[in-house]
């Protein structure tokens, strides 16, 4: 009997995956090849400290040497405690750090800095986690070999941190959202993604960070953003390839928000997340409060909407899938990622609101089970839990949940709305 059930399950999964592939125009080989590249990524970890007479944030930089050029591939502010961890693809790199004395997020002559191990090459193999020895900055970096030029070669997703755009941005399309899930490497190269401001920064307004879910994008929040009081709130949207492992995305987001906060020095930030964005947001909050505790105090209000906080049960059979998108491994109930974010406790200074949905006669919103949307431990953290009889995306568009979301953002709760 069990064998028959497993056989039926495998056949059902096979047909489902092939149906999705036909809709997206992807091939098994394309998806598998990109998944392998992502799964083979390694990490560079270590610590860097400033012992020079220069003051300012420490910027960590990873270069790739090509001919007579050192191409800057990765750059980010080192967390407050001096530790860092960054995901990289297998390759050979040169590593450096410097003190950004004038806070312009680039190296200027005269600033203190240091190349790792006398500018030696660090080779990262597939799935290799390398612990670098501690880097201590004591003065200006040693002079580079003659004829070597430093150039920026950062991906669009990095260059787009803080870029101003609108929800009419031509890259915000369902086709690109699908690419981000099934072919995330193509998305990074062709689309880019990023952390976008939807209007020029205004210090008199409160930033609201919106985080979409799997296969989604910024325009999922069209109605929510349209309902906001633009005189009081500044929408910011995260746009990311939703097929990659979630720790990669949340590492990026914590570094990107740190960059924005260093540039604009905002003292309050609201976080609103839908679907898988709830997992992204909770991991981001954990990392931000751990790595940038001084900045993290700005986060005072947080909301998740129809989020699979305990994973997606159908992915428990992931070993039977003919193709596996990397992010699916994080969505398996009980995955290391889910355990990590559920074991962490949200600081009491953050007001947390939880929104869930269900359909009549069903135990889900049509996509996510109610039990996954409502872990008891998170209900305990929540200021309030709100339930609606609608589908998975209904709260982002339906009149009543939209009014609740707007009220929570604008007043910190929904009391003013419910008293009417």
Verbal overview:
The chain is of the alpha/beta class and 420 residues long. The chain is built from 15 helices and 17 strands. It has helices spanning 2-24, 28-39, 156-159, 174-182, 184-191, 222-227, 246-264, 277-291, 293-296, 328-331, 336-343, 370-373, 376-381, 399-411, 415-418, and strands at residues 42-50, 58-66, 69-77, 83-88, 91-99, 113-115, 122-124, 129-131, 135-137, 149-152, 194-197, 206-211, 233-239, 269-274, 299-305, 351-358, 384-389.
CATH topology of the largest domain: Rossmann fold
Q: Give the neighbour order of strands across the main sheet.
A: 11-13-12-14-15-16-17
Radius of gyration: 22 Å
The fraction of residues in strands falls at 15-25%
The CATH top-level class label of the largest domain: Alpha Beta
What is the CATH superfamily of the largest domain? Alpha/Beta hydrolase fold, catalytic domain
Q: Sheet with the most strands?
A: 7 strands, mixed
Q: Based on the coordinates given, report the CATH architecture of the largest domain.
A: 3-Layer(aba) Sandwich
Give me the count of strands: 17
Return residue spans where pLDDT drops below 50 for at least 5 consecutive residues: 1-16
Number of domains: 2
Please report the number of helical segments: 15
**Helix content estimate:** 25-40%
What structural class should be given to the helix and strand makeup?
Answer: alpha/beta
């Amino acid at each position: 009997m069990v064998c028959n059930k497993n056989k039926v399950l495998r056949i059902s999964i096979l047909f489902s995956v092939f149906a999705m592939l036909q809709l997206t125009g992807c091939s098994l080989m394309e998806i598998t090849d990109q998944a392998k590249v992502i799964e083979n990524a390694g990490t560079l970890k270590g610590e860097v400290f400033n012992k020079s007479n220069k003051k300012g944030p420490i910027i960590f930089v990873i270069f790739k040497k090509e001919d007579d050029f050192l191409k800057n591939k990765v750059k980010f502010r080192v967390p407050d405690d001096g530790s860092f961890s960054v995901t990289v693809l297998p390759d050979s790199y040169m590593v450096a750090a410097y003190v950004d004395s004038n806070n312009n997020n680039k190296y200027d002559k005269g600033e203190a800095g240091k190349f790792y191990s006398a500018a030696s090459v660090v080779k990262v193999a597939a799935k290799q986690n390398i612990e670098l020895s501690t880097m201590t900055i004591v003065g200006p970096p040693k002079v580079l070999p003659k004829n070597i030029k430093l150039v920026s070669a950062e991906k669009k997703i990095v260059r787009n941190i803080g870029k101003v755009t609108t929800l009419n941005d031509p890259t915000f399309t369902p086709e690109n959202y699908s690419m981000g899930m099934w072919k995330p490497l193509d998305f990074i190269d062709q689309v880019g993604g990023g952390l976008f401001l939807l209007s020029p920064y205004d210090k008199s307004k409160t930033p609201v960070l919106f985080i979409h879910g799997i296969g989604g994008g910024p325009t999922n929040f069209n109605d929510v953003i349209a309902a906001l009081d633009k005189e009081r709130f500044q929408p910011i949207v995260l746009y990311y390839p939703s097929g990659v492992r979630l720790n990669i995305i949340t590492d990026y987001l914590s570094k990107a928000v740190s960059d924005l906060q260093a540039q604009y020095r905002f003292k309050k930030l609201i976080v609103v997340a839908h679907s898988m964005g709830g997992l992204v947001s909770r991991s981001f909050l954990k990392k931000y409060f751990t790595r940038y505790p001084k900045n993290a105090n700005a986060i005072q209000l947080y909301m998740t909407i129809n989020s699979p906080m305990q994973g997606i049960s159908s992915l428990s059979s992931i070993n039977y899938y003919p193709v596996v998108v990397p992010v699916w491994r994080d969505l398996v109930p009980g995955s290391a990622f889910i355990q990590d974010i559920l074991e962490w406790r949200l600081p009491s200074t953050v007001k947390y609101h939880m929104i869930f949905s269900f359909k009549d006669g069903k135990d889900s919103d049509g996509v996510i089970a109610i039990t996954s949307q409502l872990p008891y431990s998170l209900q305990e953290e929540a200021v309030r839990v709100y339930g609606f009889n609608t589908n998975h995306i209904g709260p982002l568009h339906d009149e009543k949940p939209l009014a609740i979301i707007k009220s929570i953002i604008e007043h910190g709760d929904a009391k003013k709305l419910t008293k009417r």
